[in-house]
Amino acid sequence: MTINNRTKGANGEKIAVNYLIQNGYKIVCTNYHYSKFAEIDIIALKNETLVFIEVKARSTLKYGHPLESINHAKLERLYMAIMDYMEIHSSMKYSKFQLDVISIIGFQNPKIEHIENVSLD
Q: pTM for the full model?
């Protein structure tokens, strides 16, 4: 039985949320929609930093590593969504924010890779 991409994405996000909680993050929200072209998968707080997290999950490496699907245009859309979130929630004062990416390979015994503070450069 094959799992569709939406289900894989939801499963990957659940794995990522559990991973983040186990590593001291407080989940603020999930699936923040900026537009039909940009969604922030997870927004979390760790120490004084608001962390925006993009999750990419694949069941195998058959079609490449999950991180290969994040290009410059995707990062630009994510940063636009971050700026939108920060503007809407400007009453909440965060000293720092960053964009992280979590890749997940496999769903039964997942291999998780967490890349912190990704930039557009």
A: 0.89
Mean pLDDT for all residues in the chain: 89
DSSP-derived letter for residue 95 is: S
Q: What is the CATH number of the domain that holds 110?
A: 3.40.1350.10
- Parallel/antiparallel/unpaired status of strands 26-35 and 49-58: unpaired
How many distinct structural domains can be found in the chain? 1
Q: What is the distance between the alpha carbons of residues 104 and 83, in angstroms, rounded to a whole number?
A: 26
Percent of all residues in the chain with a pLDDT value above 70, rounded to a whole number: 95
Candidates 45, 42, 71; CA nearest to 55 is 42
Instruction: Give the domain range for residue 89.
Output: 5-115
What secondary structure does DSSP assign to 19-78, as a single string? HHHHTT-EEEEEEEEEETTEEEEEEEEETTEEEEEEEEEESSSTT--GGGG--HHHHHHH
From residue 71, give the alpha-carbon distance in Å to each of 52, 58, 103: 17, 17, 14
pLDDT score recorded for residue 3: 60
Low-confidence ranges of the chain (pLDDT < 70): 1-3, 5, 8, 91
